[in-house]
Each structure stands twice: as structure tokens, then as C-alpha cells.
Amino acid sequence: MEAIRAQKITKRFGEVTALDKVTLEIAAGELFFLLGGSGCGKTTLLRCIAGLEKPTAGTIHFGERDVTDLPPHKREAAMVFQSYALWPHMTVGQNIAFGLEERKVPKDEIKRRVEEALSMVKLEGYGPRGIDQMSGGQQQRVSLARALVVKPKCLLLDEPLSNLDAQLRLEMRSEIRRITKENELTGVYVTHDQSEALSMADRMAVMDSGHVVQVGPPEEIYRNPCCSYVAGFIGETNLLRGTINGVHLSTPNGNLRGRITVNDWTPSEGVEALLSIRPEAITLGDPNGATLIGRVRERTYLGNLVQYAVELRDESKIQITEMNPRRIREAGETEVGLHVAPDDITLLKD
Ligand code: ATP
Q: Which ligand 1 atom sits nearest the alpha carbon of residue 11?
């Protein structure tokens, strides 16, 4: 395992700036996620780390080594792709052995290492099978084995689970985490899927328009998003707009107080800002003493939870999720109170 350090990486494709002075430090042995909307630059950053793209400016270090100008095979990093990129006319074993044959590893050792890689991904005995006789999930395991067989220090994964069905995706989450930890690999993982990132990552970076917006462990990013983009991208949230009035935000639905999540921001009097409240942080109850007041407009019962759309007094809507619902409220004209613990309201820059 090896730390990865990207320093001021800029990557331009003609007029498009895909990455703009991105700096990131990924610790040795960490499973690190790159997340963000389509086109934010996460694949380009992963490909720069892999050596498949050359940055326009900036440097990449693996441990103490400056790898910026090294070709991919000299970086000791292996990549796993969404498409698996396996050779369909070869057997499972031949696919896995390919990288070792290219490196002129002796035959006996290739045989032993292919077996070892198959066992790491729980495919013992599948070596002689044709790739077309393997299911999608098994093919993804073969592509992982092929990456592991060269004993890389870093494993780079580009949406490795996107082509699998929902159940297999869930199973493979813990498998990939186990494999990176057992092999002491530094992992960099690109995904669109925030629940994949929240459930698997040691830390993650949320990117937007070629910039890293926030870096931290999943709980930190979810609980203390630095801005409305991160709050809305990771999980769902309700945003209320208002103007700063002393320690409160004046909104059409009353004066509310929010927790500030970033150290370097002191909101000035009169500026516009946003409050973020997660749907699961709200409970419905008596209007007396409530944080907000509204009327239930829609409800969706899902057994373990119920989702409400509540219209506030200014006619804006708020989403609420109640777990383990005992009492279901119907849509109607009666006012209900929305109760939120002060700690669950965050104040964000507009
Ligand atoms: P997605 O989630 O849609 O895969 P992404 O976050 O991985 O998006 P990138 O693929 O890194 O985004 O692309 C970042 C920007 O760079 C986009 O505007 C994209 O169109 C552009 N881009 C990426 N590769 C190339 C290329 N080879 N030539 C020209 N533009 C490119």
C-alpha cells in the first residue's frame, strides 16, 4: 500500500477544463471515493492517477515516487473498469494470467498466482471456464482477480458495479471492501452512487465542475455538508432560503437558527443563506412549540417508513420521512407542527 498525492492537477481537453488545480491526499491503505455529478471530472482524475491521461499541469506522487510522467504499467496501480474489459475468447485463467505473461513471469509462478487471485475473489476452480459462461457478477470478480494478480499497491476502480443488478451490487460492495483491506491496497473508487460511497468509503471527495468541494469520512460529509451542493448531492435535503438576521435566518416561515458547518465562514447581517434540514430529522406533532408549521399534502406509506410532502405557510413544500410509523397522517387542512432538533438544522452559504 502506498499513499497517493495529487497536487494542483489541471487537465484541459481543448476548451474544456476537466480538472482545475485539484489537490488531494489519499492515505496508504485507505478506500477513497470520488463522487459528484456527471462531468465533474472524477473519471479524468482517476485516469490521471492511473497514468491513462497526462495532466496539463500538476504532479502525482505514489508514496515518495513522482509518477507524473510514468506510464500506467510502471505505477504499480491496477484498474478495474465498469465494462470489465475482459477478453471474450479466452478462459477465466487466461484472462487473469495475461498481465503476468506480458511481464514474463515464469509459468509455475503464473499458475500459482492465478489460483491465489481466483481464491481472493472466491472463484476457486473457475480457471478453465470461458468468459461467456460467467455471469455479470462473476465477470466482475474475474476483472478484480486480473487486477490483483499483478500485486498492485493501489487499486483504481471506475464505476465497477454499474452493470450489475441491485442485489449483486450490494453483495459486491462488501466484497470489494474486503479485498482492498485484506490485500492492504490503497483504493480509489469512482461512482455516481452515493449509497455505495456512504457504505464503503473510509473517506470521500465530492467534486463539482473540476474542483474538489469537500473531503471527509461519510458521516462528516452527510452530517456537516459545507454547502448546498454537497447537502443535496449526498442524501436528500430540504433547503429553506432566508436572510441573516442576528443569530437567526429570517425566512417566510419564521426565524430559524442553524448550525454552521464550516470554520472559515461568519455570515454577515442581511446576506442570503440557506437552511438544510434532512427529511428524516423532522417529526410531525403539535403545532405548539414546533420549528415549522404546515399542512400534509401527500403521503406515501412504505411499511417501514412513511414519506410526507408538507406545505408550509408560504406554500413551499417540505419532504419528511418518518421511520417505523405508528400513526399515519392523511392529507388535509389541519395544521401540523414540524419538530426538528436544533442540531439537525445546518446553515449554509447560498
Ligand atoms: P461522468 O460521471 O458522466 O462519467 P465524470 O465526473 O467522470 O462524469 P469526466 O469524464 O472526468 O467526468 O469529464 C469531465 C469533463 O471533461 C467533461 O466536461 C467531459 O466532457 C470532458 N472530457 C473528458 N474526457 C474528454 C476527452 N477525452 N476529450 C474531451 N473532453 C473530455
A: 16
Asked if the model's pLDDT at residue 165 lies above 90, the reply is: no
3-state secondary structure of 296: strand
| Distance from the alpha carbon of residue 302 to the mean position of ligand 1, in angstroms | 38
Distance CA 147, CA 176 (A): 12
**In testing the pocket of ligand 1, which one of 17, 19, 40, 83 has its CB within 8 Å of the most ligand atoms?**
40
- Cβ(210) – ligand 1 distance below 6 Å: no
- What is the set of domains in the chain, with CATH numbers? 4-223 (3.40.50.300), 236-348 (2.40.50.140)
User: Which of the four pLDDT bands, split at 50, 70 and 90, describes residue 350?
Assistant: confident
Task: Tell which atom from ligand 1 comes closest to the C-alpha of 40.
Answer: 6
Q: Write down the mean pLDDT value for the chain.
A: 93
Record the pTM. 0.91
Mean pLDDT confidence for 235-262: 94
Helix, strand, coil share (%) of the chain residues, nearest 5: 25, 35, 35
The pLDDT of residue 239? 96
